[in-house]
C-alpha cells in the first residue's frame, strides 16, 4: 500500500527493497572508505554508489507509477546483481550484509519487471 494512495500495492515490496538497498549501499560505501585496503575496493565502491542511485531512482519511478517502471527495474536488478558480486569479494560484515540486501533487491526488481 502506498503512503497516500492504494495504487502502489503491487509495487510496494519492490519499493521497500529498493529503499533498503540504497541505504545499505550508502552505509557500505561509507564503511569501505574506512577500510585499509580501499584501493582494492575501487570497483566495489563505484558499484555501491551506482546501485544506491539506481535504487533511489527505482523508488521514484515506481512511486509515480511511471510507464517505464518495469524496464527500469530490469536494469536495477542487473546493477544490484553486479553490486552484490563486488561486495561478496570482501568478507567484512558490512560487505557481506550489503551483498545479501542487493541480492534480495535484485530478486524483487525481477519480480516487479514481470508484473
Automatic annotation (TrEMBL):
Domain of life assignment: Bacteria
Pfam hit, one: Csp
PANTHER family associated with the record: CYTOPLASMIC PROTEIN, CYTOPLASMIC PROTEIN-RELATED
Name of this chain's protein: Four-helix bundle copper-binding protein
